[in-house]
Amino acid sequence: MFDKILIANRGEIACRVIKTARRMGIRTVAVYSDADRDAVHVAMADEAVHIGPASASESYLVIEKIVEACKKTGAQAVHPGYGFLSEREAFPKALEAAGIVFIGPNPGAIAAMGDKIESKKAAAAAEVSTVPGFLGVIESPEHARTIADEIGYPVMIKASAGGGGKGMRIAFSGEEVAEGFARAKSEAASSFGDDRVFIEKFITDPRHIEIQLIGDKHGNVVYLGERECSIQRRNQKVIEEAPSPLLDKKTRRKMGEQAVALAKAVNYDSAGTVEFVAGQDKSFYFLEMNTRLQVEHPVTEMITGLDLVELMIRVAAGEKLPITQDDVKLNGWAVESRVYAEDPTRNFLPSIGRLTTYRPPEEGQQGKAIVRNDTGVEEGGEIAIHYDPMIAKLVTWAPTRGEAISAQAEALDAFAIDGIRHNIPFLSALMAHPRWQEGCLSTGFIAEEFPDGFTAPEPAGPVAIRMMAAAAAIDHKLNQRKRGISGQMRAPGLFAFERDRVVILAGQTFPVTVETEGEDLLVTREDGTALTVASVWRPGEPVWIGTIGSERVAIQVRSLLNGVFLQHAGAAAEARVYTRREAELAALMPVKEQAGSGKQVLCPMPGLVKQILVAEGQEVKNGEPIAIVEAMKMENVLRAERDAKVEKIHAKEGDSLAVDAVILEFA
């Protein structure tokens, strides 16, 4: 076994590998760029080596720097994590030449399966069902359109060396092929250093289901069940679960056996994932193979009880797999939410900044459920523009799917992040969505269910009642503190004065009576309905956790002038608690309306201006592309929202812009 390994990655996956290595008694070496000098993975490792500037192309993607770091520290092996160099055939070859072990598949397997085009050829040769498409070199946008016309629309344009949603575009017509081809090639070149793309038929109403494999250097390969990854946006996964609510035992075995046969055909000898696109009728087609550890591997670990990183390390060291196919048992259900630094109310545009608050939910056993949070950030840390916007992966396990979803919903409500925009409200809303709860999924789920984008719904029904009761309890606690500070606690008459209150929540009015009942509060509505509210929440804490009636509840809390902003179960609203007379007066106050700025095109996220597609004086039509902004490895096309004339352009190609910076103005 190795004494010391280097992790050629950053963020949560580097931290994840370090945890397993530490448990195995293996020392670890981290590498870091200028932007990651103070990162969590650097502090966690036993040693750390600086490898260059913030740009990945000058640091994490430079093979020579990784090899030199191994030589400098005496690391005997390298775990690549995912992304960066994890699927570059040249990387394990360079390590092997330097006498260093690659904790991943052999170069031949990477060459055969890591390249999307070559893997489809290998799958076809192994008689695995594949999606119709064109796997040759595509020379130009015109060539791409000819191919797409022959295949039939819609088509998927994909980077050959791609992954993580980068370098992927769907085209529904010939007009969309040219732009999709250009964007896919550009993103592929900047993210993977390889601009080759291919085109295949896009299966309508598809599901994304993948099989986890693990193989050793002795010819043994087993599959570890499947993961459902159909909840995606921009072809990037948002929520994953294991097992899939679609599959039965027969289909699971058929997919697993095909995946194993394919892996054995290329002598696969590490952790890998065979991805399939599946129809609602349980038909399935080979999509691609990822020759690395997947982002969503924790859900497989939770239902199998296996540590995939440990297995990767052991097989890289030459050990045989300690399990056979008959040993693999699936137990319970696991759900993973990817917590991203992005604004779901602005079409999921990236967000950067400092994490002024970062308080994940408590990990470990929570009743029947287990909570796990894989992360690489901490409070006070900075989310930079240079890398993927993922903050954490929140995973819950429970005996059943419904219980795992309930546990996930509660954990999301207890996850406090501030200082940047994030997608937790959207994830919470998804957990409460009836279609998600029923398991009626497809990769078009988000586009179909949120066609106009996401806006946090106002609280209604039981959610509103819980938020109202929590607001009353928070107000009571704040009033207690105020009395203590001012010395008024000796005046018990004030308590009687404040029993009758009015909670204003998102325009809804709740007259209530608030009374103490031992250590708890009794919140009684006008109809006589009484709720017992119990919590040890203290002013300043970002999450209110307690019980309302018999339910355990977590609610996000942020202070406002004369009130609080609450988020719970995907809903968000301001809450203010008044005396009855204050409520009457508040109802008379006019609402101030904000003016807009419809003549300006603002940068929707912090990013780099890749192209300005219009000129001053040019007439543009509604929907016409006007600029391309790159942020966190994704290119975003900005389009005109109305017919207009460009009056002045404020930005130029190569500019780094802050959010809401003016790009151009219309006349």
From TrEMBL:
Residue ranges of every copy of the Lipoyl-binding domain listed in the record? 592-667
Instruction: Give the matching InterPro entries.
Output: ATP-grasp, BC-like_N, Biotin_BS, Biotin_carboxylase_complex, Biotin_carboxylation_dom, Biotin_COase_C, Biotin_lipoyl, CPAse_ATP-bd
Q: Which Enzyme Commission number(s) are listed?
A: 6.4.1.3
Q: Which Pfam families match?
A: Biotin_carb_C, Biotin_carb_N, Biotin_lipoyl, CPSase_L_D2, PCC_BT
Please report the stretch or stretches of sequence annotated as the Biotin carboxylation domain.
Answer: 1-451
Its annotated pathway reads:
Metabolic intermediate metabolism; propanoyl-CoA degradation; succinyl-CoA from propanoyl-CoA: step 1/3
What cofactors are annotated for this protein? Answer: biotin
Which chemical reaction does it catalyze? propanoyl-CoA + hydrogencarbonate + ATP = (S)-methylmalonyl-CoA + ADP + phosphate + H(+)
Superkingdom is Bacteria
Write out the entry's keywords from A to Z. ATP-binding, Biotin, Ligase, Lipid degradation, Lipid metabolism, Magnesium, Manganese, Metal-binding, Nucleotide-binding
Question: Domain named ATP-grasp: which ranges?
Answer: 121-317
Protein name according to UniProt: propionyl-CoA carboxylase
Species the sequence originates in: Methylobacterium longum
